[in-house]
Write a structure and sequence with these properties.
Order of helices and strands: HEEEEEHEE
Strand content: 35-45%
Distance between the termini: 10 Å
Largest sheet: 4 strands, antiparallel
Oligomer: single chain
Number of strands: 7
């Protein structure tokens, strides 16, 4: 189960969290399901992301938290995909948590542009309350 988003936005963009002049845009295809005592967040791909680098591209990666926990313990990240606005990940981020406990959390998925020498730039986000998710649905959704 997943949330469909037309464009990604956040308090980061509203507060000028990125250092470039770009509009937040794009979609993420992902799925959230429960399997063998773990919550699985499968990040398939993204498309139409904002170009945060001067090259007209970005180096995107996706970071997840299991809210309300914003600690390092809750953070998971995909690999960085270099020079693309349409990255393909096919990565599964796992959380060891009981199914019952998972239902009281929200998956916070945010997209970032990786920078070797500066601050990583925010590209967008989506939040999925697990209380309204079908944790038996193993399909990815836009």
């Amino acid at each position: 189960s997943a949330a469909s988003i037309g464009s990604l936005s956040s308090i980061y963009s509203a507060a000028g969290g990125g250092k470039g002049d770009y509009d937040i845009s794009g979609e993420v295809r992902f799925g959230v399901f429960y399997k063998e005592g773990q919550l699985m967040v499968h990040v398939s791909r993204a498309r139409g992301l904002a170009a945060a680098d001067s090259s007209g591209l970005s180096d995107p990666y996706i970071k997840t938290y299991l809210l309300p926990d914003k600690s390092k313990h809750s953070k998971r990240k995909t690999s960085v995909k270099r020079k693309t606005l349409d990255p393909v990940y096919n990565e599964t981020l796992k959380y060891k948590i009981s199914r019952r406990e998972a239902l009281s959390h929200t998956v916070w998925l945010s997209v970032w542009d990786w920078d070797r020498f500066g601050r990583n730039q925010f590209l967008g986000e989506v939040r999925l309350p697990l209380s309204s998710a079908d944790l038996d649905d193993k399909e990815d959704h836009w």
